[in-house]
Write a structure and sequence with these properties.
Largest sheet: 5 strands, mixed
Strand order of the largest sheet: 1-9-8-5-6
Shape: elongated
Mean pLDDT: 94
Radius of gyration: 17 Å
Number of strands: 9
Low-confidence stretches: none
Distance between the termini: 40 Å
Helix content: under 10%
């Protein structure tokens, strides 16, 4: 919660979540690599909608427009009972996501930063997701 709900809190976190879902009507085309401007954002380097099972997908993770190196990216499984696959972004902020099956993919990451509104929170916690389908 923020200090708006509990003004006496010694610490408070402001949680901000961003999501992208990629889909195509007809044949997949351009636009998959569009930068929307979210503070924490995934930007695919290849078109996720044209990837095949058994390949990889390079996805850049950005915070405030800059590549975010050394961050864990989670690739969530279709079955809740299976653990997510974890990959780290490299020095250029790119994670090589294994496209190990067909179906819906959900990848996610989190990043913390000092609050932009210290009167409301001591820390801002960001989360980003990218959702796409592999045929």
């Amino acid at each position: 919660t923020t200090r708006a709900e509990y003004p006496a809190a010694k610490t408070a976190t402001h949680n901000i979540k961003f999501g992208k879902a990629l889909f195509a009507v007809g044949a997949p085309g351009a636009g998959f690599d569009r930068v929307v401007g979210h503070r924490l954002e995934f930007v695919p380097r290849q078109n996720p909608l044209t990837r095949a099972a058994g390949s990889t997908l390079d996805v850049e993770l950005r915070f405030d427009g800059q590549a975010l190196a050394g961050t864990t990216v989670f690739v969530y499984p279709e079955k809740e009972s299976d653990p997510p696959v974890e990959v780290k972004t490299d020095a250029s902020g790119v994670a090589r996501v294994p496209v190990n099956r067909s179906g819906v993919f959900i990848i996610g990451a989190e990043h913390g930063a000092p609050s932009r509104h210290p009167d409301m929170a001591t820390r801002d916690a960001y989360a980003a997701t990218l959702v796409f389908t592999v045929g």
